[in-house]
Protein 1
Amino acid sequence: MDAGDAAGAALDEIAGRAARAAVERLDPASGVLARAVWVDAGPGRTGRVVLVAHHLVVDGVSWRVLVPDLRAACEAAAAGREAVLDPVGTSFRRWAELLAAQAAGEARTAELDAWLTLLGKPRPPLGAAELDRDLDTVDTLLHHTWTLPLEQAATLVGRATAAFHCGVDDILLATLAGAVGHWRPDTAAGLLVDVEGHGREPLDGVDLLRTVGWFTSVRPVRLEVAAEHLDAAMAGGSAAGSLVKAVKEQARAVPGDGLGHELLRHLNPVTGPVLRAAPAAPIGFNYLGRFVAGAEAGGGADAGPVGPWQPAGETAIGGSVDPGMPATHVVDAGAVVRDTAAGPELTLTLSWASRLLEEADARRLGETWLKMLAGLAAHAADPAAGGHTPSDFHLLDLAQHQIDELEAGFSGEQSQPFRHQPL
């Protein structure tokens, strides 16, 4: 695509249009799963390479393999050399075969009762009714995005994760659970959330470091919060820290490595119908990760001094979904961290089924999530905030109150035994 006459600032927009057009030319049924477009900016300027791949063959982690390999191959070709890429440890085919075998094995089928216990009994719908695959489709979803103040974001992705010995995903999931419990108090006693993960678990010594494919997994977790403490958590009190600790532990309390639910639901003809009949999570959660923001990666908004092989545009990875696909949840919650010149930027997005939730109601949930994060940021700024949880000590059998007492003792603080309650 010739863009030699375009202003530097317009190149990313042109590339975005090219990407949308390339998506329309994908045809999985005919085996067309990837497209590439070269946006030629003319002599002396850095153009854009647009890569589009269907989700059937790629996930977010795969781009960290594909882009360096593409760069190495292109630079080798330009220098007249043969490209030599590092080998792939385990093929996606081998991984798929391994999953199918595990789904039928005794170790996985033995997880069924534990998954059914976690899923529990049917609960009242989160929205006006249950999801309907024919009525609640992607094109009926509404979306809204919120961005935290930079100071709060820096505290949450830095100080808070270090203090509570957890990841950004734990921080986000805990505050989301608190927000839903405050928004819908009837869910506080046990909210099912589908948590999306990278899915690249180390099964049977496989090496997936350089494997490209769609490994993404989803596991349901049951989260209980104490509704009476949620106002205090939003206000920045110690309840915010207790919320993180409790949800962190509950999110880890899944059978095995967490892959078993999908294996038994989709790849085992005996257990599949049983799990499909069990309650489903009304909320989905996906932390997309941390990326360099487009302007910082690309050398500035004018797109003039852009260096080769830097991400361009507002995001490093974009995507689109067939509008006719069924919605999978009443509410989907997503988040991403972008590193900017001013500091880390934390953005939250909610998507919801418009037939089942009023926009004002869904926005209230998003705003409550923001307040929960603000409360946690305020609490985490206290040097005394933080602490370990039982899952941090794999070789010891310690309750939360025992850990709290030990940490207080080593810090020289006075402590008093108490019964730990999930928040």
Protein 2
Amino acid sequence: MTGSPRIVVLAGGVGGSRFVLGVREALRARGVAETTDSITVVVNTGDDLWLSGVRLQPDVDSITYALAGVNDTGRGWGRAGDSERVNHELQQWGAGWPWFTLGDLDLGTHLARTGWLRDGLTPTQVLERMAGRWPLGARLLPMTDAEADTVVDVRDDAGGGIRSMHFQEWWTRHRATLEPVRFDNPGIEDALPAPGVIEAIASADVVLLAPSNPVVSIGPILAVPGVRDAVRTTPAPVVGVSPIIGGRVVRGMADVCLAAIGVETSALAVARHYGARSGDGVLDAWLLAEEDAQVADEVAELGIRSPVAPLWMTDAARSAALAEAALAAAGV
């Protein structure tokens, strides 16, 4: 393909932010003129929550900060060089969650966002305003303007039943140690895709599923009514990148999430979970790690092409090489 391909990435989490950075760097290496028309990122907003009166969007902020070059690469979230004076003061008042750290610079983002929301802007409009601060080289869209925060039902051993909590409490406070039995996004069945999401997918030259958590990052995006159908019917090839390398998750607790929906932690099982577009799934190709090359034929038997490439995103060059491999798998 000549010229600038129109790339849509479905993404969330640290893996998503690193992969989106890689896509941008891969286009730069090709000498493609950097415009927001080249890359559209549809970001998971299932992680969002209200805390201490402000609206937090962890995945939105992680990807924004990464593209802006102001993210804390050591922690994988938040702003580089941040302080926590306000967070400490909130804890002295007994406000917020003592186990959920809010950096001072990060709080500035949350306060600005909340003010704009209360002024009547939609999350899409807020994100557009946020993106204007830095030259991101991509257009970021929330998956929906509706609030559809992820709730986890966990097994309550003490009470002998099931109790529910926000995903962030399960993930951050309990480190996914409480056995999940169900993930839900209340209200998502009535949500609409954010303006521009369906149009971007329909007009894309390639759609990429980032190596993000299939259950709580990519899952909520595809659960927004109309998004899965748009991915299934786009004329563009759809390429997913495995978040599993050698039978293990790269980061986080995706293995616990997968087990809760009956999917084993393997590249083959996740490919089967997404399914082939030739059937009722969403994939044309599934990029496998070199460590999982032995299952390439089994993935192909699902009706999904199974190229193999190095998937570790340990630095910017490797992230760009991975993105280039994903684009090559799509023929763009």
Protein 3
Amino acid sequence: MTVAMCGDDAAALRLVGELVRDVGGTPAVRGALDRVRQLKEVAGFVIGLAFAGSDPHSAVPRVPSAG
């Protein structure tokens, strides 16, 4: 599972990235804190699709992780 993250503190992003990897995920930094509102809104949209029984990939294509 890819975990999208936003942040301004490189050390904090590295630490959280390590925690994500420790539980089997793939961290994906998607911007600074000024992007976090957009990330939250997209996450809500995708989670809503999944709970409604729709495939989120039908609306949001997969994007390869840069890390």
Protein 4
Amino acid sequence: MTMVDGSQADELREAMIGELREMGAVRSDRVAEVFRAVPRHLFTPEASLKDAYDPRDAVHVKRDDQGRPISTVSSPQLQGSMLEQADIRPGMTALEIGSGGVNAAMMSWLAGLDGQVTTMDIDSDVTERARRLLDAAGYERVNVVLSDAENGFSQDAPYERIIVTVGAWDIPPAWIDQLAPDGRLVVPLRMRGLTRSLELEREGDHLASRSAIICGFVAMQGAGANAGQVVPLRGTKAEMRFDDGWPGDQVPDLDGVLDTERAEAWTGVTIGGMESFETLQLWLATAFPGFGKLRADADQRSVLVGDGNMWFDSAAIDGDSIAYLTTRRMEPGVSEFGAHAFGPHAAELAEAMAEQVLVWDREQRHGPGPNFGVWPLNTPDERLPEGLVITKRHHRVTISWPTAPTAATGQDNQEDRQGE
């Protein structure tokens, strides 16, 4: 690398750190310093210097046969947020699940010479790349392991910190077993199709969240993979996906429901262009037992919304109908939330979703957000907090709010018992 390239990298790095501080992704001097100390561009040879130091963008390293990313170097924004959640101190032993190289290097820098970092991945291409780049950048002490992370890596356990940098549908028992008694697990956990990076610590016999950050990751491969369940709405052009399975005995047959007349309901609740509404999606997931993620091809837009409106993939099926979140522009930079729906009971379901937007706006919009818990699979219902319960393969995950939500359609807020 020439001196000119080095100077440009330094300038881009400082600009990136400044933006990360403004975003709130970097809050501490230690995390700012690790971004300064570890040369990110050495771990992203596939990208230009500008792209390597873009604070918001990931760098795609490997894609599958359909062109979908299956291995990435996470964005600095996400890496900074998760490193702040982990709070790795000098002398700690830490495990990273999902290798890219640069994150393991930053973890190693934070743990110091008296600490130890292990990074593992199921893909030999990924681990070979990580080993090569770590060695070239001077981080030979990082232990790189090729293995399915479902069983963790017991050789270096217990770990005071475990950071998962791949989207997890569940938390394997090995991760908890290999976590030190006072350790911390930072994991992007997918719940009803919504992924949040959870900062989890032990609280009695379960894990409890200390913070949660909206995020997105490529999906876990191997034993921890989860295909979910799909309900067609218009053939393959539009469908609903349920990561945790359909929450009932019989999967509804809604293929063709989008050919019915569209119903609309508007709320008067507005949002600015740069304002986050991540807790609204979690609220709808808690309020509607049939909540899932709506996927539609681009040519279905005119069916889903009118001109000037936007549709979002937060959606719910109730019986023979489906509703989803939408907005319409009111003035420059300001939009109004609403709901669109299809099916024999579209009008009622659209109104029910609009009502839940109003409840969120009144009771939760400016609150701290929900608490998340990861409980043993055999935990009885009476021991779980009020709210949504999702039964997964290894654990029961709870999402509980300061005020319990009202069931969206007059039904009790029921447990999702489907699992896999």
